[in-house]
Design goal:
With 157 residues, the chain is mainly β. The protein contains one helix and ten strands; from the N terminus they run βαβββββββββ. It has one domain. The chain is globular, with a radius of gyration of 16 Å.
Amino acid sequence: MEVAAQWVRTSWTKRSRGGADARRRNAVPVAFPLPDVTLPVTHEITFDERSLFVPRVLVRHGEPAEAEVELTEADGMLRVFLTATGFGIPNRWRRPPAVRLAAGQWLRWQINYRLAGPCCGEGTYQQDTLNLAYGKVSANVFQGTPSHHRDERAHLR
């Protein structure tokens, strides 16, 4: 399958909800140039509070994990549905529909969560942005305006 996927994942605790850490967190871009456009490719950029929101990058040749994104090719189109974690708050009982991409189109899907800490510990917050293109792409494909956008971000307490 000819797909280029890019995950931009950011996680933090209440310590980063204000001040300099919040500014660093809020400055995280939602997209980056692809380092390799040999398809299929999954490019993951992770930011977290522990590393002061300095990016960690992983490039893997292959489609994104089936547990995170459902991809189905049919009739020259690609059906994309982001899988929300069952461990995050808020519960998402009603989800937006899957997106169908034609060759040359791309999608940005954003979602966030509040995750409980282990045994009365401090919880964490997470925001994930999936940029996913179908068909041949350039390194800067995700720098422009997406063909489709799904925004499932909620107000997190």
